[in-house]
Amino acid sequence: MRSAGCIINDMWDRDIDSRVTRTAGRPLASGAIGMKGALVTLVFMGAIGLAVLLQLNSNSVILGLASLPLVLLYPLAKRITWWPQLMLGLVFNWGALMGWSAVMNDWPGLPSILLYLGCIAWTIGYDTIYAHQDKEDDALVGVKSSALKLGDKSGLAIGVLYSTTIFLWLAAGWLVGLGILFFVGLGIAAIHFIWQVKRLDINDSSSCLRLFKSNVHFGWIVFVAVLLGGHGSL
Fold first, then answer.
1. Please, what are the domains in the chain?
2. Strands (E), the chain
């Protein structure tokens, strides 16, 4: 479904992408494939996603289908709002709700909602860093982003977003009874966040890309913390 979302995004944005240096080489923007090929691939990816979804309980099926309007509309966000990163967060982290529904056979509970909200804050933060790579091109082609909106205040805003992420995940971990190792691990993850904010140079595209990619390491730290914390709570 992530692949399907990327295809939808590239179908909407092919004309914009062709005018932005970083995205001009994307398959649709460069003309490497056409809209018909993209549509066929999208249908194929969607069919796989639907086959998986239909194996889950009815609540999860409804929840999964409810995400589709957000997926379809996300690419339009940059045309109408300064906060397309918020829409990305809503779409990209839907699995936090789906996981709870699938495992618990119920609608998302408070811990999963806190997890989801924390993921949204994280996404807005790291995607704002990412968007600073394209801010000059975005301004020229007339699309909006949190990077353009926040400008020099980006570091402060990202710090607040990252702090919100840690706080919400602490609460989620406490509600589900994770062990002390989870909270230790999340503390290490918070240090990683601090490092990102301190190293951020919004006018250095290569630095922004490195910091954006470093969120993979952050994610691994949190993943291990959850595993260790879950084991410690048994």
1. 1-55 (no CATH), 59-232 (1.20.120.1780)
2. none
